Amino acid sequence: MTTTLAILLVEDNPGDELLIKEQLHLTPLTIRQIFTASSIADAEKILEQEQVDVVLLDLTLPDSNGLDSFLAISRFASLPVIILSGLGIEKMALQSITLGAQDFLQKGEFDEKMLDKTIRYSIERKKNLEDLRISNERYSIVSKVTNDMMWDWDIVGNTVFRSEEQFVRQFKYPAEKKDLNQDFWLSIVHPDDLKIFDRIKKEMQENSSVNMFTEEYRILDGEGNYRFVNDRGYLIRDETGKVLRMIGATLDITDKRNAEQELRKLSLIAEKTVNAVIITDTDENIQWVNDAFEHLSGYHLEEIKGKKPGSVMQGPLTGKEQKQYLRKQINNRDAFSCEILNYHKSGSSYWILLQGQPVFDDEGNLLYYFAMQTDITERKKTDEILQLSEEKYRTLFNTMPASIFVWGLNDLKILEVNQKAVKQYGYCKKDFLQLTALDLRLPEDQHKFIDLAKTALLNNHFSSNGVWKHLNKNGEIMYMQISSNRIDYNGQPAMMAIATDITDKIILEQKLEEEKTKNENEVAQATITAQEKAQQEIGRELHDNVNQVLASSKLFMGLLRNNRGVHDTYLNEAEALLTLAINEIRDLSHILIAPGIQGSEFSKALDGLLKHTVGAAGLEVEKEVNDFFTDGMEEQMQLTIYRMVQEQLNNILKHAKATRVWLTLTRKANIVYLSIKDNGKGFNSTDISDGVGFLNLKNRASLYQGEVKIYSSEGNGCEVLATFKMK
Prior knowledge:
The chain is an alpha+beta fold and 727 residues long. The protein contains 22 helices and 27 strands.
C-alpha cells in the first residue's frame, strides 16, 4: 500500500487513544494524518470536512452506544470501518460486521502487525465490495429497464438459458430452476393453453418462412398462481430450414390483464361514486358523466354532451390562473389537479377539487380524458374564515406599538418579528430570521437567558416579565421591558415576547439619580465647609484673643508674685492653671484650624497629627504611605483625608482604650484607599448607629464617590476602610 492514508480514530478513552495512535505509527503504513474524535458528533464533523480513508470506531461513546454508533458512521458508505471492541461487546462488534463493518479488533489483544494487516485488508475488502456494488447496481438498473425474461432454447440439445432476475422476480421460482429444459416450461403452462404450443410447432415444421411468433398464454408461478404472459420468439434455422434454436423474451402481462378487469370495475364505481366524474373525448368534449355530477352541477348528460366542461361550468369569478393551468396541462397531455370555482345550473357558485388525467392505449395514443370532481365548498368557507382571522391577527401583530418576537425554545431561533421590531432594532426581517434570541442579549446576560429558556421548555404555562438589556444592529444598548409567554408556534414550543423600549426612561432616571447624588454631595460639601470655617474662626479666636488674654494674665500673675511673696503658694497654683489653659487652648486651636496642605505639605501635616496623637495619649502608631502620592489630587480632597484620620484618631482616644494604631494610605491610579486599625476593646459592628463620628466619616467620603466600611467585634479592635475616587 503506497498511498498515504488519513485515519479517523473515534475513541473517548484518552489512554486507549494514545496507545492506538502509537501502534499506528509503528505500522509500515504511510499515514498522512490521524484525526481523533471523542464523540459521534465530532466524528461526523470531521467526515464532512476531511478526506478520510479508514475509520477505527469504538462503539461506546458519550453521545452514542452500540450499533447506533456504527449506523451513524456508516452513512458515509464509501469508508471502511473497523470496530474497536472492548470486553463484553464482542457480540455487538460481530453484528456491526453483518451490517457492513469490515472487521473488528479486541482492545488490548492486538499489536501493530495485526493492526496493519486489518487496515490493509479492510480497505481492499471495502474497495472490492464497492466495485461489486457498482456492478450489481448497473445490472439492477438494466433489469429494471426491461421487464422481459430473456431466454435462449437450444432445441437440438434441449437446453435453456433464462435471465435470472426476471425469472425469479416475475415467476417466483428459485434461481436453480431457471435453466431447466423446455419440458419444465411446458409442465407449468395452463392445460387449456398447451394447444397454442402445438399450433406453433406445426407452423414451424410446415412453413420454413415462419421465423417469429407472438402468443399470450398462462403459466403457473412458483406460488401456485397462474399468470398471463406475452411470449415472443425468433427462430434460427439451418440451411435445410430445420429449426435449431429459438431466442425470445417473455413478459408478464398479468397486471395489464388485471388492469383491464379493474377498469371495468372502475367504470361501475365511477357511475355510483359520490364524487362527480366526467369523461371527455380527445377534443375535450363531454361524453359521459355520472349521477353524482348531475347532482353537483344540476346538469343532465343530455344537456351538456358534446360541450366542453369549462364552457358549461366556469363563470365570471372562476380564477384566471386555474384556467391557464388546466389549459397548459391538457395541451401537454399531463395529469392535472387544482381547486377551482364552478357554477351550478341555477347560477350559484361552488368550489371543487378537480383531478384528471389523459388515458392512452398501449401505443401511446390518446383515448379520452377522465376527471373527478370533489365538492370542497364548505372547506373553502372555513379556510376563508381562518384566512380572515389570520389577516386580522397579522394586522394587529404588525401594527402593535411594541416590538414582538416569536422564538423557538429548542434552538432559540427567531421565528417571527413585527414591523416595530424591524424599525427599533435596525435589522430587516430576513436578517432577523437568521438570528437567535441570544444574539440580542449582552454576553453577561446570555447564561441567565438560557436558564429562562430551559425553564420555559419544561412549563407549558410559563410566563415572565422584566427588564433586559438588548443590542440593536449598531451594537447600541437598549433597555427593554419584556413580557413573555409560552406558546405553540407551527407545532413547536416557542415564546412570544412583547418588548417596550424604556431606554429614555432609564437614562432619565439615571440622570435624576446622578443629580440627586450631586446635590447631596454639594450639601455635604457645604456643611463640611461651614464646619471647617466655623472651626477655624473658633480656633483663631481662641488662639489670637482668648489665649492672649490668658497669657497676659499669667504675666501679671508673675509680676504680682515678685512683689508680694506672701501669696506665692496661691499665685503658683493660679499660674499653673493658666499655663494648663493656654496649652489646652493651643491644642484645641491646632485641631480646629486646618493645616496648610499642598503637595508634600500633606505628608508633613499627617506626621504632625500622628505625633500630636502619640504625645497626647502615648499611642504607638505605625504608618505606611509608601504607595501614596498627591499628584493631581485636589487640596480639598487631601484635607478630607486628613480630617477623616483626625476624626478616627479622636474616636480611638475617646472610646477604644487602644495602645496601638496602624495607618495605611495607598493609591492606584485615581483610586485612594485608607485603612485605620486599632487593637482596642472593639464593639459589635452590626449594631453601629449613625453616631456623629462615623457619620462624619461617611459624609466626607461621599464627596468623592467613596464609601466607608467598619469591621469590629468585641475584644478585637476596630478597622475603618475608606475608598475614594478622584474627580
